[in-house]
Design a protein that fits this description.
Elements (H helix, E strand, L loop, with lengths): L22 H12 L6 H8 L4 H15 L3 H8 L2 H10 L3 H14 L5 H9 L3 H15 L3 H8 L2 H10 L12 H14 L23 H17 L2 H15 L3 H8 L2 H15 L1 H13 L6 H11 L4 H12 L3 H8 L2 H11 L2
Helix pairs in contact: 1-2, 1-3, 2-20, 4-5, 5-17, 5-20, 6-7, 6-8, 6-9, 7-15, 9-10, 10-12, 11-12, 11-13, 14-15, 15-16, 16-17, 16-18, 16-19, 19-20
Length: 346
C-alpha cells in the first residue's frame, strides 16, 4: 500500500517518486552491481534510496522477469549486517513492514512496548486495519490475539483499544465533550498538590489516596480517552486540562503512572501534540549514549521517508541543535551510513 495512504496533509517527505523512472534500466543496473566478484553497494544505494517503495517493488517485479530471481533474496545474499537490514526494509510495502515490526515487538523475550505504541499510534484507522490484515496473512494469527497474549493489565487494554481502529477521526470538536473529558481525567487523578483551581470535583486535593482497585479504574479513564478521541479533540482537551488543574498532562502522567503504561500514555500525548517532534525524539534516543538502537533508527527513517521525514528533520534540528544527518554520520558507518543519509536527504 502506498505510503501516502498513511500520511496526513501538508507532510514533507524526503523520498519522492523518481522522475523518468525506468524499472528495466534499474533492474539491469542492480544485476550489474551484484554480479561478478564483489558487490557495488554504492550503485545499489544510488538506485534504491532515490526510488519510492512502489517503484522499488516494480523494479523487483521486472528483475524477476528478467533474471528469474527474487531481488530481495539476491540483495540479502550480497549484503550483510545493518546494510542488509535497511535495504530489506526499503523493499517491503509499508503495511507489511509495520506488521513485521509489530511481530518483532511481541515475539522476543522482552516486549518492545514503545515500538508497539509508536506503530499503532502512527497509523490512521485505515492503516491499523490494513496492517492487522497483513499481520494475519503473514503469521496466521490475529494482531489483537498476540497483543493480548504478550501484555497484561491496563497496558494490554490500551493496546487492544489502539488496534481496534475505532478512534474518532473527525475534525469537528465538541467543546462540551472536551471539557467533560478534561474533568474526567482530573477527577481520576488523585494526588493534586494544589487542588483543582476551584473546580467542584470529587477529586479535591484532600481526597484520600487510591487503593489498587481504584487505580485500575483511573488508569482505564486515561486509556479510554487517549485511545478513542480524535487528535483535534485531544489537543484542545490537553489545554483545558491544564487550565482546570494548573498542570500539564505529561507531568501528571510522568508522576503518577509507571512502567509500560506510563511510556504508552506519554507516547500517545507526544504523538498527538506534534508527531514530527515525537519521532525526532525517538531518533535522538536511538542514537544517544553508547551504542545505537539500529532497529528503531532503520524503522523510523525507512517508514517515515515517504511521509514526513522532512518535518522530523526540522524538529530534530530545533530540539537538539544539530541536523539529523550530522547525528547519523557520527553514529553509523560505511554503506549503511550512506544509505541512511541518502534516505534522509532531499
Amino acid at each position: 500500500m502506498p505510503h501516502h495512504r498513511y500520511a496526513t496533509q501538508n507532510c514533507v517527505p524526503t523520498v519522492l517518486e523518481y522522475k523518468g523512472f525506468d524499472p528495466n534500466s534499474d533492474a539491469a543496473a542492480l544485476e550489474a552491481a551484484m554480479c561478478g566478484q564483489g558487490t557495488n553497494e554504492d550503485a545499489i544505494i544510488d538506485i534504491l534510496a532515490h526510488r519510492t517503495v512502489s517503484q522499488r517493488l516494480k523494479i523487483a517485479e521486472v528483475y524477476k522477469e528478467l533474471y528469474d530471481t527474487d531481488l530481495v533474496g539476491r540483495l540479502k545474499k550480497d549484503l550483510t549486517g545493518h546494510m542488509e537490514n535497511v535495504t530489506v526494509a526499503m523493499m517491503t510495502p509499508i503495511s507489511q513492514l509495520y506488521a513485521v515490526e509489530l511481530r518483532k515487538a511481541v515475539s522476543g523475550l522482552l516486549t518492545d512496548e514503545e515500538s508497539l505504541v509508536e506503530v499503532l499510534m502512527s497509523l490512521s484507522n485505515f492503516g491499523v486495519i490494513d496492517v492487522a490484515t497483513e499481520y494475519e496473512n503473514m503469521y496466521g494469527r490475529s494482531l489483537e490475539h498476540d497483543l493480548k497474549n504478550d501484555s497484561s493489565g491496563e497496558f494490554r487494554n490500551l493496546l487492544v483499544r489502539l488496534c481496534s481502529a475505532s478512534r474518532d477521526e473527525s475534525d469537528v470538536v465538541n467543546e462540551e465533550i472536551v471539557r467533560d473529558d478534561a474533568l474526567a481525567l482530573a477527577a481520576a487523578e488523585v494526588f493534586w498538590p494544589q487542588g483543582l483551581h476551584g473546580e467542584n470535583l470529587s477529586c479535591s486535593s484532600n481526597r484520600p489516596a487510591a487503593g489498587a482497585s481504584e487505580w485500575a479504574t483511573e488508569e482505564s479513564v486515561f486509556a479510554s480517552v487517549l485511545a478513542s478521541r480524535s487528535f483535534a479533540h485531544l489537543r484542545l482537551m490537553f489545554r483545558v486540562f491544564r487550565s482546570v488543574t494548573g498542570r500539564d498532562i505529561e507531568a501528571v502522567i510522568d508522576q503518577h503512572f509507571s512502567g509500560k503504561l506510563r511510556k504508552g500514555f506519554l507516547s500517545i500525548v507526544r504523538i498527538v501534540r506534534k508527531r514530527p517532534a515525537y519521532f525526532a525524539r525517538r531518533l535522538y534516543e536511538s542514537m544517544k549514549g553508547l551504542g545505537t538502537d539500529d532497529h528503531t533508527l532503520i524503522r523510523i527513517v525507512v517508514s517515515r521517508s515517504e511521509i514526513d521525514l522532512g518535518d522530523i528533520k526540522q524538529e530534530y534540528l530545533a530540539q537538539y541543535g544539530q541536523t539529523l544527518e550530522k547525528w547519523i554520520e557520527g553514529d553509523t558507518l560505511g554503506h549503511y551510513r550512506r544509505m541512511l543519509l541518502a534516505l534522509v536527504s532531499y
